Amino acid sequence: MSVGRKLSRRKLAGYIADQIQSGQGEAAILQAAAYIIEMKQTHNTGLLVRDIEQKLAHAGTVIADTVSARALTEEDKSKIAKLFGAKQLHTRETIDASVLGGVRVEAAGKRLDATLKHRIDSLKEIDSRKGIK
Amino acid sequence: MTNITVTELTKELREAIAQLETAEGLETVGVVTRVGDGIAWIHGLKTAGYSEVLEIETSSGTVEAFALNLMEDEIGAVLLGSDALVRAGSTVRLKGEVLSVPVGEELLGRVVDPLGRPLDGGPAIKAKQTGTVEREAIGVMGRKSVHEPLMTGIVAIDAMFPVGRGQRELIIGDRQTGKTAILIDTMINQARQKTGVINVYVAIGQKLSKVAQLVERLKSEGVMEQTIVVATSPSDPASLVYLAPYAATAMGEYFRDNSGHALIMYDDLSKHAVAYRQMSLLLRRPPGREAYPGDVFYLHSRLLERSAKLSDALGGGSLTALPVIETQAGDISAYIPTNVISITDGQIFMETDLFYQGIRPAISAGLSVSRVGGNAQTKAVKSVSSHLKLGLSQFRELASFVQFGSDLDDATKAQIERGQRLTELLKQPQYQPMGIWEQVASIYAVNEGAFDSVPVAKIKEAQSTLLTRLWTEHKDAMRTLNNGDKPSDDTLGAIKKAAEEAAKDIEG
């Protein structure tokens, strides 16, 4: 990857995802970081990470952000992996008592909100809509 | 869930659970990358469709937007609410439906915004049905040629440029030339003549004070019960201004598709094009002529094509459109005016000079035309107005020569005299649309020369005397004439006689 040649974010994400899967992720990430700084694209880092995660998810490696009231059990994780079609699941877990129960999972442009708080909010929303319709 | 009885509770709860269950599961989400000027750029949501509604999660609930730019890895969406709450990083989800608005009779008498939310301080609209804002126009086989009249009550229009149900007739002219006045009179006429035509008035970026005045007038004339007003103000986001005519058309289509007749007035499409230009430039679409985007013709053609007269198989309903275009210094060859002129089935051109000469409505006989309305004109009006347009155009040409004071032959003098009287007769005060019999009697009286001896300044007085005389002495004949059939010789004779007597009264 020669620094100076402009690459699209999608191509860059595809390259890094390929390198991660072939076990050379660390070097590719360092290269990509240098490239992003050189090309003054640091504001797009968040989007690049999303793109990489989506590419990885497509290949079976899912990186999921979870929010739950208590720590996830292995059983929970295997259910999440099954739902997202993951051969390999990595989680970034957040414990938040305000969700009351259940779990919210977000990965690769998809989201499952099975928290109690979401159910209650949805019920409230249906109620308010009834007032309009 | 307030105000529900205990017996309803189980049903309500079951419904709520059912809705909740269907809403559950994996949903596709995206993220807002940039936001500003009413536009949000979204990463993700690859399955989003064109014009699909998106829900952006904010700290104070959701803000809706609709997708207009679908690109390889980004969506340009136009916000339907304030962009102040939307932040970069906000989660966006697909609503799974294209934009739709409430439609139906529940909207009659109401003033709503383009999303069907009440603006008149009344209760929420509880419509049983919704209609999609963007909808394909009816195909060829579903249509029938325009053949039923839509009387505006304005003599100059009904006699010279008749409008038929299902027609698209453009009202075009500079600011302050009486364009909206024509629309109001047409709405009033539908109520006075009990035509059963539903009025849908769309205020596109109009001052709310003007809309409030209009609504008050419609209420005082008893027209509001058969009218829907869809209002947007200049302070509304461009997205709402852009949606207004489409949403109102969906409301009008409900009546058309249920064998009814509706009249939709877009006041005005110039402001609509400007709102679309703003959105397009912010969405970074390439600007074309006058900085409008390349699809500005399609913007209006797909809108106006939805106005149609339906075939009998589809119920025979109709949606008539009266779009308005505001010109700058009478320039009808500008981009948007030429576009809409070519889309519509004719135009009524309002002239500033005529307006300030006191000829109101200031309709230009030479530049106005109705391409299909002739087939829809009532036989009664047609029988007396066949040469009216030509005569009036010739008169206005001749009148410009008279200014030079050259000697004229008797025939030309007579033509000018008749033209002056005709011009005077076609002047009509606002909020006073005329019935068929009034129009026929007035035109016939002048055409037959019954008012030739009446001074030009007293023509309106003579007309008023004639109409009063006819109504008191020949009420039944006038009622029959008002049905629109060709007048009998007896009726015409009675009109001529009454006109001559009225002329004598004025002279005497």
Topology overview:
The complex is a heterodimer of chains A (133) and B (508).
Chain A: H1 9-21, H2 25-38, H3 45-58, E1 61-68, H4 74-83, E2 88-95, E3 103-107, E4 110-113, H5 116-132
Parallel strand pairs in A: 1-2
Antiparallel strand pairs in A: 1-3, 3-4
Helix pairs in contact in A: 1-2, 1-3
Chain B: H1 6-23, E1 26-36, E2 39-44, E3 52-58, E4 61-70, E5 75-79, E6 91-98, E7 100-103, E8 111-112, E9 129-132, H2 155-160, E10 170-173, H3 179-192, E11 198-203, H4 208-220, E12 227-231, H5 238-257, E13 261-267, H6 269-282, H7 296-304, E14 318-326, H8 335-343, E15 346-350, H9 352-356, E16 369-370, H10 379-385, H11 388-402, H12 410-426, H13 436-447, H14 459-473, H15 475-481, H16 489-507
Parallel strand pairs in B: 8-12, 10-14, 10-15, 11-12, 11-13, 13-14
Antiparallel strand pairs in B: 1-2, 1-6, 2-5, 3-4, 3-6, 4-5, 7-9, 15-16
Helix pairs in contact in B: 5-6, 7-8, 10-13, 11-12, 12-13, 13-15, 14-16
